Amino acid sequence: MDHPKKKLTVLDQITASDKVRRKIIDVASALYAKKGFTATSIQEISEKAGVALPVTYHYVKKKSEIMRMIMEDVLSMFQDNLTDQIKGIDDPLEKLGIAVVLYFRVVDQQKEKALLIYQKSNSLEKASKSRVMQLEVDVSNIFAEIIREGIEEGVFKEVDVDLMAYNIIMLAHMWILKGWHFRKRLTLDKYIDLQLTIIMDALKK
Question: How is residue 114 annotated by DSSP?
């Protein structure tokens, strides 16, 4: 017998904001993937997440803001893990390798959310669309900073840093956008290994 989910109160909202935010993001992502963006209401997201509607509206006034939260969530996951993993590492080659592998894995783990961003970002109103685009640039800047460091230290060739950083992002996204093709013959680990070789060959002196 199913038990109804406990509603989170306003006090919960204050004391467990990360938990509330996570519930909203995860439920919204699942509903968008299953029913579509237009057919999903904030009220339904609230009910499925077990979050009181006034609390949900504290975080999002309209559905487009949830898309921004999804993008922020993916970026935050990548940034937080990367900070931990490259702590104390000085070699740009090693740093870039760690960053590439981590980003590819985060994109794979969050593939439903990443696909939603691709499918729906063009339908967002201007402010939310601009925010989603800026968050993607923030990811690019993480790779760009490591690449610039490698060039300054003489480890990497002189390249168009912005273009190279975006190449890395698109190679990661290709795994989810064209997975119907690549998963027929490659595991995620093999795909990452092959793409990392291409990236490093393009950069190393």
Answer: H
Q: What is the DSSP letter of 51?
A: B
**Can you tell me the distance from the alpha carbon of 107 to that of 2, in angstroms, rounded to the nearest whole number?**
33
Alpha helices, H only, the chain: 10-15, 17-35, 42-49, 53-59, 63-85, 92-109, 111-120, 126-152, 161-177, 179-182, 188-203
Interacting residues of 93 by C-beta distance below 8 A, sequence separation 6+: 150, 155, 200, 204
Residues 6+ apart with CB under 8 A from 101: 192, 196
Residues 6 or more apart in contact with residue 60 via CB below 8 angstroms: 24, 42, 66, 69
CB 99 within 8 A of CB 86: yes
Burial of 49 per CB tally in 10 Å (0-12, 13-18, 19+): buried
Smallest Cα–Cα separation from 124: which of 112, 133, 114, 111? 133
CATH superfamily of 1-61: Homeodomain-like (1.10.10.60)
pTM of structure: 0.76
63-203 CATH fold: Tetracycline Repressor; domain 2 (1.10.357)
> pLDDT tens digit string along 41-80?
889 988 998 888 888 887 777 777 777 777 777 777 777 7
